[in-house]
Acyl-coenzyme A thioesterase 11
Amino acid sequence: MPVPAGTGSITSLLTSGLTHDRALVMANEPRDNVPLEEPMFILENGEMCRNPTEVKMSQIVLPCHANYCGELSAGQLLKWMDSTACLSAERHAGCSCITASVDDIHFITTIGVGQVVNITAKVNRAFTSSMEVGILVSCEDLFSNRQWKVCHAFATFVARRTEAGKVQLKQVIPRTQAEQMEYSLAAERRRMRLIHAEIINDLLSSCSSQTGDERLDYQDAVPAERTRVESVELVLPPHANHQVSTFGGQIMAWMENVATISASRLCNAHPTLRSIDMFHFRGPSHIGDRLVLKAIVNNAFKKSMEVGVCAEAYQGGEPLRHINTAFMTFEVLDNDRKPCTLPRIRPEPDGKRRFQEAIARKKIRLDRKYIISCKQSEVPLSVPWDPSNQMYLSYNNVSALKMLAARNNWVLTSEKNKVSLYTLEENQTLCFKVETHVAVAAEQVFLLLSDLRRRKAWDHHYQECEVITDSDEDDTIYRVVTPSVTKRGKVQDFILLASRRRPCDSGDPYLIALRSVTLPSYPPTEDYNRGEVLCAGFSIWEEENTFTKISYYNQATPGVLPYISTDIAGLSSSFYCTFASCSAFLQENKESLASLPTSTL
């Protein structure tokens, strides 16, 4: 049953109403709230231990590291981040590693000369021959003893082949709640990386075709050609790593340099790098290569501009090899550190496609920023769904469930008929978990629970359920109708995005994540109270071949709290009856999967 979100102690939650704003907290907690340093954990024998893949770097910012504003050059910071992450990856792999890709980086603040940069990197999860490395950058002021976060990034590294052949990486063993959370989320981030390029291209094509006929007034605009920059760098031994390949961080630093020059030509001022979009290294570069770097401002918005940068390499008379393409967002700050209004730009005839695609990327960038990073003060509980943000909403949906499931401070409230009810109060939010076991294979449980239309057979709260749209094979949007919470009240309806995930590895669960979305074609009506779900869903663990643990999670919201308040208070056992019905439903239907709709399978 969909269950919405609440705040306060259990007593106050059960006796008072909840506001929409106060319900926006926990499982979708902003990822900016990462601790600057996770303490060492204690093993069972009492020994203090640190993550074996963790690598730390501390650098004091000297004038030679700074730009014209007396602030640490973003390029220099990228070099330090790449070096630290590479050392962490190599510590885990036991062999040489290369940078394959870097996720979006958002720079929260700048770093001045004399301050200390602290960089911590550790492997979150290893796959076959690649691994995700989390990088946390903070700044320290030695005189005031203050520390603050600068950015948080994820990079993918690949272990280089050895003489023995392709490297098979050992698995990472998470030992703390935070490590378990990142380990689980790493699988979802990897899925998004693998489909990122294809989805971005589809969205850019769609958005460009929709905006391609717009007539813009370019009077007094700066010609884009004026911002074009081309520079060549000779790769020397100091630019290479111990594998004689050009540092990925060095390439990023050179790209940032030409992008900064390009941005400066538009605004005739000193720009500040605010973000770098996710990018992939297409191929290696080596000592002796000539690296050709090209940059141009693709579009200027009111307070920011997008600069496109391309890096290509060659040796002798060979053709250019594409190394990397990146899109960087710059701002120009005034004396109060507020963004200034920028001049408009006039695209060249051959640059109109870049101009329109930059508009589409800005929209995608906002979706990534406010959906994936879950800034709850800026995004509503129910987010509008459309094809341009479907990938990010799906990611957010599954990640929120994984973060909720990774909490280790659940309190057992009651237990009956082999069904356990747990609660969790944290950050002024009430969540609950219902757990049971069934003698049905995990994959069969997953298939039977994936189609919400079948839930009416075991959950009396689901009066009606219809499919609105099948976004893709992993995501479906449903409209669910539930009974009124009062005798004379209106029935409730929910517009739910259901995101399904099969295990990434043998030790992972099956997941069915639920959250509310908004569709223009299904607005709230007078006949129904529109309910909302922030985070809910099933985690399905295979414990034996035909024995499965089912955990149902829900971050309580005002629209659903009345359905479960008496169970949490111990005044009712309706939830136990519901999950007993669920167990019976699974037992009765485990052999009938052949008759399920193709979309479910």
